[in-house]
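Late entry, written up from scratch paper. The run itself happened at the end of the previous shift, but nothing got recorded in the book at the time, so transcribing now.
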Amino acid sequence: MQNIAIVLVSGGLDSATALAAARAAGFACCALSFDYGQRHASELQAARRVTAALQCLEHVVSRIDLRVFGGSALTAGIPVPKDRPTAEMSAGIPVTYVPARNTIFLSFALAYAEVKGARDIFIGVNALDYSGYPDCRPEYIQAYERMAGLATRAGVEGNAPLRIHTPLIAMTKAQIIQTAVRLGVDLSQTQSCYDPSPEGLACGHCDSCLLRKKGFAEAGVPDSTRYRQ
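Output as recorded:
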């Protein structure tokens, strides 16, 4: 019988690749996505496409509303930055950072894992080509994993500790794309844009779109993203 892994799937390039990596490692995958009031709700449609294509055991979409706090261009009426130089993207924490998002998402994944008897969680965080988010760093993941050992039945009872897998954390965006292609991910089904059209077309100018474009170019892989223009 295969071991089960909980995989956080946003519908973006990174989470789709993390899901494919979990499957390649021999796990049967249960996907977890969030309808958290984000402006780019079309990513949930992408998440459904990705999880179906990669044959997840089940796909849970949890509804929480982070708009009650706001504080981010993704959950409040704050303009999404466009056409920023790559160096500027990682110079500070941008307004697209959603406060405590990965902490919240991992908490739900932890609960899901306990119910499923899973000891493994996969998340597609990346510490190289990323937009300055504090909850994408290795030290954050390590600290969360230690906390999970204190907060779960398995940790208290001395059973196998829960592990948080970050297969993409030390990869460039180009390496992630190359890995996705090698693992058979249809990247045209993913959605990474922070400010897509109502039809789900990428803007081509936000930080996420620019990093994605750069990754495709450096990987030598044709960009299958559907842009507005």
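The chain has a mean pLDDT of 92.
(Scratch paper discarded after transcription.)
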